[in-house]
Design goal:
Helix content of chain A: 40-55%
Number of helices of chain B: 3
Number of helices of chain A: 10
Oligomer: heterodimer
Largest interface: A-B, 81 and 52 residues
Structural class of chain B: alpha+beta
Order of helices and strands of chain B: EEEEHEHEEHEEE
Helix content of chain B: 10-25%
Shape of chain B: elongated
Strand content of chain B: 25-35%
Strand content of chain A: 5-15%
Distance between the termini of chain B: 45 Å
Chain lengths: 201, 121
Amino acid sequence: MWQALYEETQSAGFSVVTVALDRSADDARPWIEAARPTHPSLIDVRHRVADLYNMVNVPTVVWIDEAGRIVRPNDVAFGTDTFKHITGLEAAPHLAALRGWIRGETSALPADRTRALLALPTDADQQARAEFALGQWLWEHGRLPSAGRHFEGAGELAPHDFTIRRGTMPMRGVDPMGPAFREMLGQWTGAGRPYYRPLPG
Amino acid sequence: MPTTAADGRSFTIIDDGRPATIPVDVGPAGVRIPARAAGDALGWRLTGDVALEELAAALGRPVAADRDERAVYVGVGAAERGRVLTSLEAPDFTLPDLDGRPHSLAAHRGRKVLLVAYASW
């Protein structure tokens, strides 16, 4: 889907950069090879981009202009309706807005409006990311029980950060598609918390 | 009872993803880093030993420590992340593709970019 969008707008001086927040190239490989992309498909084992941009779930999209400035910050709006039954979000308005921006038909938001849409990380968010990073280092060095403790701690510090709570499931031996995730999601949404929080408008 | 670096106790200090194994002292106040090792681990030029957690807190940087495993991760603080995001300058990064080739966001300067983060989970 991103590849189709990329091909459509290639002549417009537009790039798609995809980043897989995955443990290894092998985890992301099936997804990337199925798409056969000509855009950069990158592997972010350390979740560096999630830290830099304060991303807390996937998929997340950011619009960046020719000068390297954020014109639309983190959004979970999807490019297809495949996920609509899960998220309740329609793709068409987002795609129409995206095409308008790429083609230069619509201008970017004023900077102060863009700033108002930013979600800035808290100290707890960054502490959670440090715990997650320590957990990763321990996991990579075979210290699995210790790693698990830091992953759990990270999840408690930032319960809204699903790149941690769900992203650590494979390392903790939990199926991220299975009953443990569904139970976690049920508790979260049952408490009135959204799993996807799209940008307004 | 604090142990001294002369005991051969070393910790791995991971500074925003960059690890270094250095001699440390461990006491009630936490991990103390000898001045001479602080440069290797954190790039800090110091004239005396430093209490790692205390100085990191003063700098607004989060610390995740596992004393049993002798590993400490020093992350980037919320104020710094917020400062960069508020400037609306898209943070640069360099990451490998499937073939291990590095790609940077900055290489796309001059083109509009749709940055998409996703995962297999």
